[in-house]
Design brief:
188 residues, mainly alpha, two-stranded parallel sheet, 4 strands, elongated
């Protein structure tokens, strides 16, 4: 070690006082996410100040940890794969029941119930084909039953998504992530 003259040692900066380590904001947000909404609301302002973050940022972090805890993924949550039926299904009987369902709830042109049933049937085997027909629900004027048709079809296809007024970029992302079936309508 070097021996410094007393006057140089006296001018040396003093060691900085030890400061408490900043609180771990991520760990705090994880713990806050475990609280009930009421308990969290009572503590959020105080915790945000202690952590040195804005309340809105803390709210977003807590919301994210709550979703992660619940196993939710925002992009995937709406679409779930249908469970296979517990016994073999007779395709002819299934198509007949689907046609009956369409005829029960909708007023359709001739053979449209059969076409809808075949389209729904195809939607379940979509990945096994190279091409796919497009289902267009059109009418000459408003209030002709397009929305009702779309609602009935949506119950019978896997991963339905209504696409009325949906941007093309959103459609592209949803198709890429979920391989979903779209239901849309138009007045012509």
């Amino acid at each position: 070690m070097t021996n410094w003259p007393a006057e140089i040692a006296a001018t040396a900066p003093e060691a900085e006082p030890e400061v408490d380590a900043p609180p771990d904001a991520e760990a705090a947000a994880r713990e806050l996410a475990k609280l009930s909404p009421l308990a969290y609301d009572q503590r959020r302002d105080e915790e945000a100040k202690r952590l040195g973050v804005r309340v809105a940022v803390l709210d977003a972090a807590v919301r994210g940890y709550r979703k992660a805890e619940a196993g939710e993924d925002e992009a995937v949550a709406p679409f779930t794969d249908p469970e296979p039926w517990h016994e073999p299904v007779n395709g002819t009987t299934l198509l007949d029941e689907m046609v009956s369902t369409f005829k029960r709830f909708l007023v359709l042109p001739d053979h449209s119930a059969e076409a809808l049933a075949l389209w729904c049937f195809h939607a379940h085997a979509h990945d096994a084909t190279d091409i796919s027909p497009i289902l267009a629900v059109l009418s000459p004027e408003k209030k002709c039953g397009k929305t009702t048709t779309i609602k009935v079809v949506s119950v019978l296809v896997p991963k339905p998504m209504h696409t009325i007024n949906t941007s093309s970029s959103v459609l592209f992302r949803v198709v890429e992530m979920n391989r979903t079936e779209f239901a849309g309508g138009s007045n012509s």
